[in-house]
Amino acid sequence: MTYTIVTECIACDACRPRCPTEAIARRENLYQIDPYLCNNCLEYYPDPLCVVLCPTLHPVPLEIDPSFKIKRKKCRWSDKENLASPELFSNGKITAIAAARVIWEACNLLAQSSSLPWLTEPDGKVSYSQPFRYGKGKIRFRIAENLEDECPNSLGGDAAWRAIELFNLRAACMHLIYAACATTLERPWEEAFVIDDRQIEAYLRLDERKDLSRHDKLALIKFLARQPCQLLASIRFPQQERLRAFTVEESRLWHLLSIEHRFQEDAFGNKHVIGLRFRIRAGQWAKYFLNPQGAKEKTAFYQSAILPKSLLEKVMSLWQKHQGAARMMLWLLFKLQQEPEEAIAVSTLMKVGYGEEPIAPTNKKRDRRAQRLQTFENDLEVLYERGFKPVFDPATYAPEIQPLWAKLLDIPEDSEADLDFWIDDASKDRRITDPAPRRKWERLMNAYILKFELPTEFARGIAEFEAQKKETATEKAKRKIQPDLTGEAVIAARNNKGWSQRRLAKMMGKSQSWVRDIEHKRFEIKPADRERLREILGL
């Protein structure tokens, strides 16, 4: 019943100092467990502590029972106190998501990791800052020293850079899942949501990964679930309309309150992790930007948007081969909902996809620019194939500097029309297949994309979401205009018309006792019945 550490160890040193038998040793950044000292934490902890502490579940049993197999149905969370949050994507397509600027920037940060301009401050702490509202507001991110403390210290030096290097696009997807779960709560900065490995596996489509064992999937889920919780955020928000300027002091973006491990024992007495459950609470930012009651009272915001399930699936399928396209896709998720009418500069899109260094004015290496240009045009094609269709600005992004694949879209499918197309193209001064013009890079840095036509399910989801918001606003306006329908008002209106309770009940399709109970205020009228009653009584 002893454990060993496999080669995928990330050397975080979480297990070594807390081993009760001092069985874990570090030799040249490699960790080893002494099998003569390890006793499976018997008499110390109910479960092996190194497995519980490891962010990637890499301590595994030294002797494997060849007949052991994780039984999926055995992992059932029986307690009702910490049931998992409601399933997202209830319609199978879209779900609501927190859309505050801090959520957008954190998504961008996790996706770009070390390609962003992180700074080392005078006190040695490493931070990334992003201004907004023309420099009047500012968001600053730092890396938390640990995941346990409510108000942890921030990291600096090599420790901070190691944590930043581990951020990736999959962690950004996990962050979006948290932002969606937070919208299911009334007070997310006080209440916690619970999400288990099965839900995460379904949202990220890991259930379709046949190349990963069950243990590998759990290790990946635990690793990804922790990454968004390493971020600390502080916000300086300028005055906006009636809302005064405010500051959100540095606090966790997401607080990982607990990780519950479910174990299954094999014939050798070794314990294997078969399930994980995470309890998470949103940080103080939610009190200002995801506060439904505060939004009603004009003291806070409730900023939300939609998240298509297909977008998570696309990012998870692209994140290795087309990182630039996946980063742009995540950025466009917020950009196209919050600033839909604003044209997008090509230079901005390149910064999102590849960072600032490759497109900096000081970087004048022609071979590097040519390589980056080809990558960008390939990534634009990937976006087009996934339903994000760019509309080029004819004034700044002229046809001669557009990607070749975009020009070929105009080729007719009919063979005769196709021949005429190429004959006509050959007679022009500049043909489709001609080499790119001189100074194409400089022209691209001043070019714009007017908009992106969205995938069908995304566009339909936005339309439904906006319609729902308008409907809610209309209902609120009606409630303000129309006085409350009291029992006395129903009695007075019925008597004015000379009707009995029985006649009113017949017109409503209800029983006489229902009318009597309404008039005596014995229960609340449903909204649909209230409107019908107003219509019949002329109120």
From TrEMBL:
Keyword Heme tagged: no
Entry keyword annotation includes Metal-binding: yes
All copies of domain HTH cro/C1-type, residue ranges: 490-519
Alphabetized UniProt keyword annotations: Iron, Iron-sulfur, Metal-binding
All residue ranges annotated as the 4Fe-4S ferredoxin-type domain in the record: 1-29
Gene Ontology terms for molecular function: DNA binding; iron-sulfur cluster binding; metal ion binding
Protein name stated in the entry: Transcriptional regulator
